[in-house]
Amino acid sequence: MRVLLTGGSGFIGSHIALLLLERGFDVLILDSYVNSSSNVINRIKAYLDKKDLNYKLKSINGDIRDKKLLDNIFIDSIKEKKPIDTVIHLAGLKSVSESFSNPLHYWDVNVIGTLNLLLTMKEYKCYSLVFSSSATIYGLSNSVPMAEDHKISPINPYGKTKVAIENMIYDLYNSNINVWKICSLRYFNPVGAHPSGLIGEDPIGIPNNLFPYLTQVAIGRQKSLNIYGNDWDTDDGSGIRDYIHIIDLAEGHLASIDYLNSKESCLEFVNLGSGKGYSVFQIIRQFELSTGCKIPFSIESRRDGDVAKSYADISKAKKLLAWTPKRSLEQICLDGWNWQLKNPYGFQ
Ligand code: WQD
């Protein structure tokens, strides 16, 4: 089976690519490298070579807004007699804070880019799609844990682009319900790294997200962790999130492909999270316990677009995809630290 993996050299994409290749899928990675390093491809190959695995991997440097490029990718696959069976679509911008300062760029890349991709898939009769959505679409949590029927009310432009794409997907499916097979996966907070330490999270510039910032404090690249608010409506006052090990998340994508392959047509929106909520202070404590590192921090004011609590009800994923997260918060800390220790400056 041939899978087109857009955004396949990013943190999430690279881990999905590795699992797909280990499973014997033929993988085409399309990435603009705007928020990732092309070194990831060599790391993936090094890992598979070390395991003496045969694999079929091709990487294409490009932007999903380039319709001509997308056409050529599908046309070339047909010419090679290896048409694209499924698209896992991750390519997009994902910083909540950056989406406030540059909203039109987010609408352009995330929404216009996805529109391009869906038009191309339709044109070349590729009707199987796994889409990278986000728990950010839920916005302020009325109640936790949040199930898929939770109110959708994004409070930042990034989340609004994800809602727009889910609406596009919904309309596309309903325009021809006998052919499309779509899973929209709503990620909570993907963290950690592949246990080999060969790939992991390597944000460009100063990390927006807690976990990579924390591992950079531990390795000495950042002086101290800013905790954005200790006056949230939570037990210890810091924000609560659902941290899911990146390999559990990647396995959720393979389970989605298996699910799509078992259906004639379908449209499903599914949460992918650990199902547990941990506060910032709990993360710091677990990380220090697991790694022996000391994490200095200071309390700062809240960030725009933040919410107090967000963690997933994952019963639908368990039932529909026969998937369940296996890795603990301790494993997340150990694997995340192992990656950072082996790669103090990421993929550079
Ligand atoms: C987690 C908690 C912060 C940084 C992310 C992605 C977004 C989406 C959802 C995929 C919050 C606190 C953070 C720091 C801190 N992912 N924090 N100091 O905000 O849940 O959003 O997941 O779609 O793209 O951004 O994750 O890691 O930024 O914040 O105190 O330096 O840690 O206030 O409570 P968030 P995060």
End-to-end distance, in Å? 32 Å
Structural class assignment: alpha/beta
What do we call the CATH homologous superfamily?
NAD(P)-binding Rossmann-like Domain
What is the makeup of the main sheet?
7 strands, parallel
Total domain units: 1
Main sheet strand line-up: 3-2-1-4-5-6-11
CATH architecture: 3-Layer(aba) Sandwich
Count the E strands: 13
Parts with pLDDT < 50 across at least 5 consecutive residues:
none
Ligands present: UDP-4-deoxy-4-formamido-beta-L-arabinopyranose
How many helices does DSSP assign? 11
CATH topology: Rossmann fold
Shape: globular
Order of helices and strands: EHEHEHEHHEHEEHEEEHEEHEHH
Helix amount: 40-55%
Provide the β-strand percentage band: 15-25%
CATH C-level: Alpha Beta
Blueprint of the fold:
Layout: E1 2-6, H1 11-22, E2 26-31, H2 39-50, E3 56-61, H3 67-79, E4 86-89, H4 96-101, H5 103-123, E5 128-134, H6 157-175, E6 181-187, E7 189-191, H7 210-219, E8 225-228, E9 240-241, E10 243-245, H8 246-261, E11 266-272, E12 278-279, H9 280-291, E13 297-300, H10 315-320, H11 329-342
Residues 94, 96, 134-136, 187, 189, 208-210, 213, 226-228, 239, 241, 280, 303, 306 line the site of UDP-4-deoxy-4-formamido-beta-L-arabinopyranose.
